[in-house]
């Protein structure tokens, strides 16, 4: 599904020039669950942003599902994100005064889908994450784990090919983190959604089928996690 060849990313010029990525070669097949790890400043977030079409490479080839994404303009990248990508963030990014159902509907609203159809799909997504009884609750009426489940429902309501998770358990306690990771793993195994997750926690990375470690803008290791699948 993903193929990166010689990907570099440079920010700034002159003395302010910084090479965030220094020649990344990476292939990720459809349906795989991959954790990306690395210290701060290693380039892991830049790599994920490029894979998620939130940023563009300076040089190199990025092929997604047969399409050369490095040739896309901003509108084409936006359409790719809208139709094929789902995103989960550490901070949940929910609208505070909006119900769980309405938060999940947002990606469908951007597609111009009629209200009745949006309601049905959003309710189905919330049921899939175990929140069928919380449709009308606002984020302030939900626990941290429930808020992250709403965020996951929002990410999967469009039936994406890929789920990008950026530190999805960073604001959660241990038990809630385990519950969220069990849910993400189930979405991967039962729905075949490709999962790309950034994490700095080894126990969270152990849920993945594969761990890619990034250091100084290069892939430092690519292997199965300790105790992983």
Automatic annotation (TrEMBL):
Q: Which residues form the ABC transporter domain?
A: 2-229
Recorded hits in SMART domains, A to Z, give: AAA
Q: Does the keyword Nucleotide-binding apply?
A: yes
Pfam families in the cross-refs: ABC_tran (PF00005)
Q: Which PROSITE patterns match?
A: ABC_TRANSPORTER_1, ABC_TRANSPORTER_2
Keyword terms of this UniProt record: ATP-binding, Cell membrane, Membrane, Nucleotide-binding, Transport
Which CDD domains does this entry report, sorted A to Z? ABC_MJ0796_LolCDE_FtsE
Named from the GO MF annotations, one term is:
ATP binding
Keyword Transport present in the record's keywords: the answer is: yes
What is the recorded name of this protein? ABC transporter ATP-binding protein
- What species is this protein from? Niveibacterium microcysteis
């Amino acid at each position: 599904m993903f193929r990166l060849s010689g990907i570099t990313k440079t920010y700034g010029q002159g003395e302010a020039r910084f090479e965030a990525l220094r020649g990344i070669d990476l292939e990720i097949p459809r349906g795989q669950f991959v954790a990306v790890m690395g210290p701060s400043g290693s380039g892991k977030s830049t790599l994920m942003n490029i894979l998620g079409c939130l940023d563009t490479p300076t040089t190199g080839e990025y092929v997604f599902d047969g399409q050369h994404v490095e040739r896309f303009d901003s509108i084409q990248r936006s359409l790719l994100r809208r139709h094929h990508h789902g995103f989960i963030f550490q901070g949940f990014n929910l609208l505070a005064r909006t119900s769980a159902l309405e938060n999940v509907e947002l990606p469908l609203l951007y597609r111009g889908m009629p209200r009745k159809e949006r309601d049905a799909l959003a309710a189905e997504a919330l049921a899939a994450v175990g929140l069928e009884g919380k449709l009308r609750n606002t984020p302030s009426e939900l626990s941290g784990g429930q808020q992250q489940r709403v965020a996951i429902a929002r990410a999967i309501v469009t039936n994406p090919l890929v789920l990008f998770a950026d530190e999805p358990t960073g604001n959660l306690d241990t038990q809630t983190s385990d519950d969220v990771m069990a849910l993400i793993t189930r979405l991967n195994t039962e729905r075949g959604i490709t999962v790309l997750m950034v994490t700095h926690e080894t126990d969270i990375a152990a849920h993945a089928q594969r761990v890619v470690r990034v250091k100084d803008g290069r892939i430092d290791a690519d292997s199965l996690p300790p105790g992983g699948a």
